[in-house]
Amino acid sequence: MRMENSFSFVRDFERLLGPDFFRKVKSFTAMRTDTEDLEVELIRYLEQLESRGEIDVLFLGLGPEQNAASHLAYIKPNSGAAATDLAGVIPISADILNHHIAKFKAGGVRYARFQRANESPDTNFTEAEETFSEADESECRRATHILTLGPATILRANRIVQSIVDADTAPAKRASFRRLIETEISNDPETRQHQLDENPGLWIRLNSNVRSLILPNVLT
Fold first, then answer.
1. Per-domain residue ranges of the chain
2. Strands 145-149 and 70-71
3. For the CA atoms of 134, 114, 161, 220, what is the dihedral angle to 10 degrees?
4. Residues ≥6 apart with Cβ < 8 Å to 122
């Protein structure tokens, strides 16, 4: 999917984080999915990630799955993701696409796109309002795979900030979050790996520096 597509995560980050954030963070490097070879792009991105050193802050959400399980960074249940996996290529189901599109639309029919005003070191961003288009949604619905970070990246981040919202449009998040915080993770390696594979949202609990930000309706 094209980076400028209004259903891309880059556009969503711009809308949610706002211009004040981007005045401090001049840019960020996203995975490129508008490529013919996803595996080659994934390797390129991982090499770039490795060259930057430690991850200071990793932003994550939480997606609902069947039986009150959850996905994290699009690591799906029973995908076999292991603690040594830095990233992966994940097939996208119709459920994921529908949830993704509904989530973006719930954020408003308009999104804020922040563009560079100039290329000087003191780059500022100007805000331009644009609308979702049928062409963007159609392109999003044609997606078959997504690039995602793996458990190893989650485990090695110096700090994780987790945001859990959209419980009104995705009410299954309430049960998923409850199971996430109430599950007792086993000390037995084999049993623990089974738990993590069945419910990948649990990977976040193995990082010792996590702050979860949730809306009140997640708990109701």
1. 9-218
2. unpaired
3. -50
4. none
- Per-residue pLDDT tens digits of the chain, which is 220 residues long: 887 888 887 777 777 777 787 777 766 677 888 888 888 988 998 898 888 888 888 989 998 999 999 999 989 999 999 999 999 888 887 877 887 888 777 665 444 344 444 444 444 444 444 456 788 899 989 988 888 899 999 999 999 999 888 788 789 999 999 999 999 999 999 999 999 999 999 999 999 999 999 988 898 8
Residue for token digits 């959209």? 166
Strand partners, 19: none
- Which CATH fold would you assign to the domain 9-218? Rossmann fold (3.40.50)
The span from the CA of 210 to the CA of 100, in Å, is 24
- Paired tokens of 67: 């039986």
Axis-axis angle for helices 134-141, 94-106 (nearest 10): 150
Q: Give the global pTM.
A: 0.77
- Please answer whether residues 200 and 75 qualify as being in contact, where contact means their C-beta atoms are separated by less than 8 angstroms: yes
The answer for residues whose C-beta is within 8 angstroms of residue 124's C-beta and 6 or more apart is 23, 116, 117, 118
CA distance linking residue 133 with residue 7, whole number of Å: 10
Roughly how many angstroms between the first and final C-alpha of the chain, as a whole number? 35
